[in-house]
C-alpha cells in the first residue's frame, strides 16, 4: 500500500467505527468507505506563497449561520489542466487553512467545497497536496457547523484529487 492508501484506509476505519466519527449510527451501519479520486501526482505541490504584508481579519460564514475568525495569510497560483488559478490561504489560532470549491462541485465533489491544511516550508513556500483534500463534516451530517468557502477560492477548473462527494 502507498502512504496515501494507508491514510485513506485509516480514515475509512475512523469514519466507520470511531465514536467521534461525523457519521450517525445509522450511516455507520451501511458505511463501505469514502469515495476518492485516484492519486494525482500533478496535484501534490510545493508552492511559493505571496504573503500579504498586512494580514486582514476575515470572518468566514459557517453552514449554521455563525462565523469563524481567520486572517488572510497569502495567496499562491498553480496550473491545472493548462490553466493558471489562484487560491488564498487563511490562518487561525489552529494553523493554516485552505478551503476551495472546484468545477466538479455538486457533481463529483461536495457543493460547498473541500478543505486542506497546507504545510509551511522554509522560504515562504507551502506543501499543498490536493490528494488529501477532504469534505467538511457537514457534508455527512447537518448537525456539524463548517466554514463556507469564500468566493475568492471558488475555482472554475476541476480538481481531480482527494475526497469525492459523499452519498448516503
Task: Write a compact overview of the structure shown.
By secondary structure, the protein is mainly β.
Describe the structure.
- By secondary structure, the chain is mostly beta strands.
- The protein has one domain.
- It contains 2 helices and 9 strands.
- Strands 2, 3, 4, 5, 6 and 7 form a 6-stranded antiparallel sheet that branches. Strands 1-9-8 form a 3-stranded antiparallel sheet, with no helix packed on it.
- The chain starts with a helix and ends in a 39-residue tail after the last strand.
- 24% of the residues are buried.
List strands and helices in order, with pairings:
Layout: H1 3-17, H2 25-29, E1 44-48, E2 50-51, E3 57-61, E4 67-80, E5 83-92, E6 95-100, E7 114-116, E8 119-121, E9 125-129
Spell out the key features of this protein.
single chain, 168 residues, mainly beta, six-stranded antiparallel sheet
Helix content: 10-25%
Mind summarizing the main beta sheet? 6 strands, antiparallel
> Given the C-alpha coordinates, what overall shape results?
globular
- Series of secondary-structure elements, N-terminal to C-terminal: HHEEEEEEEEE
In quaternary terms, these chains amount to single chain
Mean pLDDT: 94
